[in-house]
């Protein structure tokens, strides 16, 4: 179904209609308001025509046809409600009901079940089938999914979704005939992406969520459309509650950037906000060190007085602020405004410092816009997609779905530069779809990217007009890459010249090519330079300015992008605009009624250093948790303990909040209104789905309340007014919402970059640093993002904890064999920093000589890591360490156990 | 590693199909030949060879009653219970076997010698009642005959009363019997 398709005219139940060639009859009917009953058909899936429910009569075809698999033809005459069509439907239903239990009163699908609806419409109340019905015991398919196979109508939607859409192939149709049932396989515990898609797509109640079993009837639920806060994809979710109890989260077909698909965190992770450990009352530290619950008045008053005092005695720059990127744009904007206007400091930073900032800086520098110039729709149109250090399936699962669809349905050629093995299992693995998978040695993306540029330059893949228009740019890069040998590249990255050249050719020669860059690059030392080199690659191959081509940096946090745009990072005012941008200074001064502060900014590492040295006396930390987001040797606790006054605003008493003098209870994204900006740059509405828990309040309200108490009132009646102000201060912020068009590359910036801008650091960017080799016999330990979690926040979600409740050391079977360890065994990890005992999980996508540990549970292993700070962008880098692994004296233990017996 | 020693056969099977996945049944058969049943390890291995997941191999295996997903006895006794055989005494034959072996349908004797099942028509309707044990047919069965067959098999591993199955053309004449 191409865009330029010819139209076909047909008649359905007497209605003439025109639809594009290739449309399915069932869809054509839907468009004129006729719903042909169906079970196995689903717009997301390839037609399977196995249930026979959708039969229609088509003139000149002797037998009834399945409208879900028949495509329209010119002059076709379709009848969907003539007597023999209806009688055929009755027969299909009679057969289905012959084995269907009378479960409706206890079935979670009751009230929104296709079988129920169609039965009401078509079935005779008496069946001719007198046999006993089949009986399957109900089964738990893993920790969060239940199956009731008596209810299954064998439409295979779940199996097909899991295969075609998720690419997990985790479900099996076991057996045949009436005793077919949907299982994982051979009684093994379900291992899969746990996306909940099979539950969502089942037309009956055969697959259900164990988190909400028997709790509700669909018509009792109140629904709110909002945005998931677990990652930068920004999926639209429907939060459903009964009274004030959260019952279920799902997403409707066609909704949001995710088109109704969700990942495990969105589907099963909704309980985090309801966790009993939520701080529900303002807390103030007592003389004895304990916290006392106080009223808002008291807490706010205490903070306002202390901030005022410190500002008066030590100056504005004795106070700094950090904020999490889980906050809405409005919260982020108001926080930086509060810090700049009321406190009077530019010492503000946010979670975007953990890596996203590297990408934003490079994009701004080269293409003049910090946003993606492409969007998900461009993935579907792309001829080639290149993933660089993304772990996209784990960090941005819905972006991954778009990539999977582009490859599987549209034939895009996938090039992956990832530090993982393309091993297929029932958890989807994006690299199994690659045309060229380049397994980059962990942490060696610098050499890999350099290789790509070298291949393009040396294999004559540079676009002629680029060579003509920017000869010096091309020549400088050529001279630089010539100095690096393929041997050196292979030595560091593990990639051969041929492999890199083939990948580079696929990318360069594609008409439309999209590059996605992820955390392995963004969170690395020199990350900004690496993204800049990838931008060079785009310039050299002509992709930078080609429509449909572009580069996107994947935002991990739900509002990483927003944090930068709202000016909640050290280097930017809202916009983002540079702190010395006169235009922006003028606008802000006018809007805020006060000059912007002139003091120096401070990044997260600088804020902590200044706190340690006593230059900063007080910190306002909103939702960020540096104690647990940085390794032990970062000295965060020392910094916080040196403060005179620490204010934390959070949902939980985190390790950071525990050190505060005052804690404000914040409410979760489920409990407030506002907007998030997703990784593509779409600004989407967050809507309040539940009442704020206890006394908790939206973050912005606290900034506003403090400003009033500090005699600098910045007040708003509702969150929309803040958004209006944001639109006023950021030029061009009007392009919002799901229909927005991505920004274009700024020609002036590119021209400036290729003529002179690149010279600034090109020599450094194209040299290989000697990377520290792993000590002999040591394993490279990496803290990785798990698909089932997001930061530490998701470890409060009971569903996700059922799925993955602890951190285990992932190694592949070969490595385990070499180390003499087995699944489930306890091992000891050690290096100069410390040691840890953890248990082992075999995972065959982990490369040799490497072990993964989920960062969400890093508490026991954090001592093994040490902090490095990017000298240029101040991104903290620390998620790789070298460790030795020894078996945790299992023999001694078993002797002990034996003697006990 | 079930297929390790059959690498040549596996390669030969794979070479026959333009779509890899099509090689699934021959591989399942090979696995059953090797181990007597299709083990989970075999399913994993086949999935690996065909670039599929275990559930995809498993679901195919469960479709075919002739593939055993649990270990079976050394001799798989499969009695035809279709119409022709039923008319000439398949039911009493099954009852006799149950009693004699002390097991029910689908079960295996404790010494792991015999597994008993019933199957549909084996195409020997003129010589019923009949049964197939592993690859061999035993026809025109009587209690005496069956008693002797079981005894011979138990003691010597073979029985002279077997016949067929007859392949056309004969085995070894270019037919790959997998
Ligand atoms: S990945 Fe798991 S949860 Fe998602 S559709 Fe497949 S079986 Fe269901
Ligand atoms: S479980 Fe549901 S979706 Fe899957 S085959 Fe059965 S009825 Fe269809
Ligand atoms: S975590 Fe990301 S991909 Fe998953 S549902 Fe939420 S926004 Fe979507
Ligand atoms: S919907 Fe058409 S056959 Fe199932
Ligand atoms: S009926 Fe028994 S072999 Fe045909």
Notes on the protein architecture:
The complex is a heterodimer of chains A (901) and B (178). Chain A is built from 31 helices and 37 strands. Chain A folds into five domains: 7-97, Ubiquitin-like (UB roll); 104-274, Alpha-Beta Plaits (2-Layer Sandwich), CATH 3.30.70; 283-355 and 559-729, 3-Layer(aba) Sandwich (Rossmann fold), CATH 3.40.50.740; 384-401 and 409-538, Dimethylsulfoxide Reductase, domain 2 (3-Layer(aba) Sandwich); 779-900, Beta Barrel (Barwin-like endoglucanases), CATH 2.40.40. Chain A is globular, with a radius of gyration of 29 Å. In chain A, helix 2 (83-98) packs across helix 3 and helix 13 packs antiparallel against helix 16 (486-493). Chain B has 178 residues and is an alpha+beta fold. Chain B has two domains: 4-61, NADH-quinone oxidoreductase subunit E (Arc Repressor Mutant, subunit A, Orthogonal Bundle); 75-156, Glutaredoxin, CATH 3.40.30. Chain B has seven helices and four strands; from the N terminus they run ααααβααβββα. Chain B has a four-stranded mixed sheet with strand order 2-1-3-4, covered by helices on one side. Chain B starts with 6 loop residues before the first helix and ends in a 22-residue tail after the last helix. The chains are: A alpha/beta (901), B alpha+beta (178). Chain A binds chain B through residues 168-176, 183-186, 188, 424-426, 432, and chain B through 40, 43, 47, 51-56, 58-59, 62-63, 69.
Give a summary of the structure in a few sentences.
The complex is a heterodimer of chains A (901) and B (178). With 901 residues, chain A is of the alpha/beta class.
């Amino acid at each position: 179904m191409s865009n330029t398709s010819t139209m076909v005219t047909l008649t359905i139940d007497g209605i003439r209609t025109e639809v594009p060639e290739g449309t399915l009859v069932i869809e054509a009917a839907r468009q004129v308001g006729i719903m042909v009953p169906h079970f196995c058909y689903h717009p997301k899936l390839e037609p399977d025509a196995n249930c026979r429910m959708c039969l229609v009569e088509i003139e000149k075809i002797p037998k009834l046809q399945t409208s879900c698999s028949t495509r329209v033809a010119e002059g076709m005459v379709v009848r969907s409600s003539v007597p023999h069509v209806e009688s055929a439907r009755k027969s299909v239903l009679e057969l289905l009901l012959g084995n269907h239990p009378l479960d409706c009163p206890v079935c979670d699908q009751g009230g929104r079940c296709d079988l129920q609806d169609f039965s009401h419409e078509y079935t005779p109340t008496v069946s001719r089938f007198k046999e006993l019905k089949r009986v399957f015991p109900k089964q738990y398919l893993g920790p969060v999914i239940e199956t009731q196979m008596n209810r299954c109508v064998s439409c295979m939607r779940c199996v097909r979704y899991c295969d075609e859409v998720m690419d997990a192939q985790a479900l099996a149709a076991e057996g045949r005939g009436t005793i077919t049932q949907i299982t994982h396989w051979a009684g093994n515990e379900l291992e899969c992406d746990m996306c909940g898609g099979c539950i969502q797509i089942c037309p009956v109640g055969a697959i259900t969520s164990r988190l909400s079993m028997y709790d509700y009837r669909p018509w009792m639920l109140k629904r709110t459309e909002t945005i998931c806060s677990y990652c930068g994809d920004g999926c639209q979710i429907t939060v459903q509650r009964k009274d004030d109890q959260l019952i279920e989260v799902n997403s409707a077909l066609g909704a949001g950037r995710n088109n109704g698909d969700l990942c495990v965190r969105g589907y099963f992770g909704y309980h985090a906000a309801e966790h009993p450990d939520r701080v529900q009352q303002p807390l103030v530290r007592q003389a004895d060190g304990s916290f006392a619950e106080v009223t808002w008045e008291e807490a706010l008053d205490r903070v306002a007085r202390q901030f005022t005092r410190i500002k008066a005695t030590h100056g504005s720059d004795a106070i700094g602020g950090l904020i999490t990127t889980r906050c809405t744009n409005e919260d982020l904007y108001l926080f930086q405004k509060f810090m700049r206007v009321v406190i009077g400091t530019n010492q503000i930073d946010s979670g975007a410092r953990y890596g996203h900032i590297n990408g934003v800086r490079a994009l701004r520098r080269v293409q003049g816009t910090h946003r993606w110039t492409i969007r998900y729709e461009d993935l579907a149109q792309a001829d080639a997609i290149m993933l660089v250090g993304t772990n996209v399936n784990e960090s941005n699962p819905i972006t991954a779905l778009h990539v999977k669809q582009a490859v599987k349905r549209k034939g895009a050629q996938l090039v992956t530069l990832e530090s993982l093995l393309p091993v297929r299992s029932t958890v989807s693995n994006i690299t199994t779809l690659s045309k060229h998978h380049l397994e980059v040695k962990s942490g060696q993306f610098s050499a890999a990217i350099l290789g790509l540029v070298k291949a393009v330059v040396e294999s004559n893949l540079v676009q002629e007009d680029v060579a003509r228009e920017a000869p010096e740019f091309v020549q400088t890069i050529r001279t630089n890459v010539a100095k690096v040998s393929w041997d050196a590249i292979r030595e560091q990255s593990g990639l051969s010249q041929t492999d890199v050249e083939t990948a580079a050719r696929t990318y360069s020669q594609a008409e439309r090519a999209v590059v996605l860059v992820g955390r392995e690059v963004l969170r690395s030392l020199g990350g900004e330079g690496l993204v800049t080199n990838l931008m060079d690659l785009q310039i050299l191959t002509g992709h930078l300015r080609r429509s449909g081509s572009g580069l996107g940096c994947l935002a991990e946090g739900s509002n990483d992008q927003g944090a930068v745009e709202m000016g909640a990072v050290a280097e930017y005012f809202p916009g983002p605009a540079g702190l010395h941008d006169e235009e922006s200074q003028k606008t802000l001064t006018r809007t805020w009624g006060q000059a912007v502060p002139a003091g120096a900014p401070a990044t997260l590492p600088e804020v902590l250093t200044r706190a340690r040295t006593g230059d900063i006396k007080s910190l306002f930390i909103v939702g960020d948790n540096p104690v647990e987001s940085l390794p032990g040797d970062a000295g965060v606790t020392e910094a916080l303990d040196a403060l005179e006054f620490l204010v934390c605003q959070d949902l939980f008493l985190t390790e950071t909040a525990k050190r505060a003098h005052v804690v404000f209870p914040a409410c979760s994204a489920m409990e407030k209104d506002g907007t998030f900006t997703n990784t593509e740059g779409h600004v989407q509405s967050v809507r309040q789905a539940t009442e704020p828990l206890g006394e908790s309040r939206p973050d912005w309200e606290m900034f506003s309340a403090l400003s009033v108490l500090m005699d600098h009132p910045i007040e708003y009646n509702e969150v929309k007014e803040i958004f209006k102000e944001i639109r006023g201060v950021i030029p061009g912020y009007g392009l919002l919402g799901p229909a927005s068009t991505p920004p274009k590359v700024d020609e002036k910036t590119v021209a400036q970059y290729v003529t002179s801008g690149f010279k600034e650091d090109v020599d450094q960017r194209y040299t290989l640093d000697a990377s520290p080799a792993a000590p002999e016999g040591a394993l490279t330990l990496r803290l990785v993002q798990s698909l089932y979690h997001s930061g530490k926040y998701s470890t409060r979600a009971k569903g996700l904890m059922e799925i993955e409740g602890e951190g285990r050391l992932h190694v592949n079977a070969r490595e385990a064999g070499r180390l003499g360890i087995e699944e489930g065994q306890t091992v000891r990890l050690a290096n100069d920093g410390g040691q840890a005992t953890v248990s082992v999980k075999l995972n065959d996508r982990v490369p040799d000589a490497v072990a993964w540990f989920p960062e969400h549970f890093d508490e026991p292993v954090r001592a093994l890591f040490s902090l490095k700070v990017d000298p240029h962008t101040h991104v903290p880098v620390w998620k790789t360490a070298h460790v030795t692994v020894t078996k945790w004296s299992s023999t001694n233990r078993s002797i002990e156990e034996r003697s006990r017996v | 590693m079930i297929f390790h020693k059959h690498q040549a056969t596996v390669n030969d099977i794979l070479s026959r199909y333009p779509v890899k996945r099509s090689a699934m049944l021959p591989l399942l058969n090979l696995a059953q030949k090797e181990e007597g049943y299709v083990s989970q390890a075999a399913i994993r291995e086949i999935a690996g060879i065909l670039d599929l997941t275990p559930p995809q191999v498993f679901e195919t295996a469960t479709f075919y009653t002739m593939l055993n997903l649990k270990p079976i006895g050394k001799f798989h006794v499969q009695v035809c219970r279709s119409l022709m055989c039923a008319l000439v005494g398949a039911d009493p034959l099954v009852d006799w076997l149950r009693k004699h072996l002390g097991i029910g349908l689908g079960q295996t004797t404790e010494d792991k010698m015999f597994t008993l099942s019933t199957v549909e028509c084996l195409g020997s309707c003129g010589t019923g009642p009949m049964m197939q044990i592993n690859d061999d047919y035993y026809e025109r069965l009587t209690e005496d005959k069956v008693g002797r067959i079981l005894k011979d098999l138990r003691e010597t591993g073979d029985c002279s009363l077997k016949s067929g199955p007859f392949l056309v053309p004969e085995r070894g004449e270019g037919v790959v019997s997998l």
